[in-house]
């Protein structure tokens, strides 16, 4: 199969755009950052008053519809967090809201997770400093997600899968597939 070609092509996508790997789920996904408090989002759940973008960031269309929620897990937050989703009826792109301040923290912890998994894959053991069960959980989640998203051919390309998921604004070690 032409897996290498496919992987190479995906890397050229800008980070805010993604193309679903499952053909029937082909969507363009955009992330919109809002300066909102993660604590308040957790406290209010689906009742949190997310701002609505005035226009579509892709086609500038002036109708942006709310489009349900997506649940996400954040380091340091118990349970799932509901993030608002929007949809543009003009160009049909889907937007996902994210708390701005928190994303940087998440990125930092993602970087820690990535280097821990890279160490394990290279050396066959876990680096010190973080509990082994936690690191084992990251690796298991990554395997599950990579196989679910990209298929069996990616069993030995876990780090690559990690990066692809990041490119698609997906948490590579999220507990949900
Ligand atoms: Zn649009």
Q: How would you characterize this protein structure?
A:
This protein has helices at residues 3-11, 38-44, 100-123, 132-150, 158-167, and strands at residues 29-34, 65-72, 81-87, 94-99. Strand 2 (65-72) and strand 3 (81-87) form a beta hairpin. Helix 4 (132-150) crosses helix 5. The relative contact order is 0.15. With 177 residues, it is of the alpha+beta class. Strands 1-4-3-2 form a 4-stranded mixed sheet. It has 5 helices and 4 strands. It has one domain (3-167). The protein binds zinc ion. Zinc ion is lined by residues 56, 58-59, 61, 88, 90-91, 93. The site of zinc ion (ZN) has 8 residues, from loops.
Keyphrases for this structure?
alpha+beta, four-stranded mixed β-sheet, 4 strands, globular, disordered N terminus, binds zinc ion
Helix-strand blueprint:
Blueprint: H1 3-11, E1 29-34, H2 38-44, E2 65-72, E3 81-87, E4 94-99, H3 100-123, H4 132-150, H5 158-167
Parallel strand pairs: 1-4
Antiparallel strand pairs: 2-3, 3-4
Helix pairs in contact: 4-5
Bound molecules: zinc ion (ZN).
Please tell me the total number of domains.
1
Question: Sheet with the most strands?
Answer: 4 strands, mixed
Number of helices: 5
Strand order of the largest sheet: 1-4-3-2
Ions, cofactors and other ligands present here are: zinc ion
Number of strands: 4
What is the mean pLDDT? 79
- The SS-based structural class is alpha+beta
Shape: globular
Helical fraction: 25-40%
Strand content: 15-25%
- Runs in which pLDDT lies below 50 for 5 or more consecutive residues are 1-26
């Amino acid at each position: 199969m032409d897996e290498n070609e496919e992987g190479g092509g995906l890397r050229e996508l800008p980070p805010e755009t993604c193309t679903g790997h499952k053909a029937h789920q082909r969507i363009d996904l955009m992330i919109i950052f809002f300066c909102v408090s993660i604590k308040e989002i957790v406290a209010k759940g689906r009742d949190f008053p997310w701002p609505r973008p005035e226009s579509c960031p892709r086609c500038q269309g002036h109708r942006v519809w709310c489009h349900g929620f997506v649940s996400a897990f954040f380091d340091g937050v118990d349970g799932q967090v509901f993030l608002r989703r929007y949809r543009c009826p003009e160009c049909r792109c889907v937007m996902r809201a994210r708390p701005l301040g928190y994303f940087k923290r998440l990125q930092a912890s993602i970087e820690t997770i990535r280097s821990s998994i890279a160490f394990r894959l290279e050396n066959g053991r876990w680096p010190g400093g973080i509990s082994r069960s936690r690191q084992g959980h990251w690796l298991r989640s990554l395997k599950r997600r990579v196989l679910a998203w990209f298929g069996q051919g990616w069993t030995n390309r876990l780090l690559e899968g990690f990066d692809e998921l990041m490119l698609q604004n997906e948490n590579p070690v999220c507990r949900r597939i």
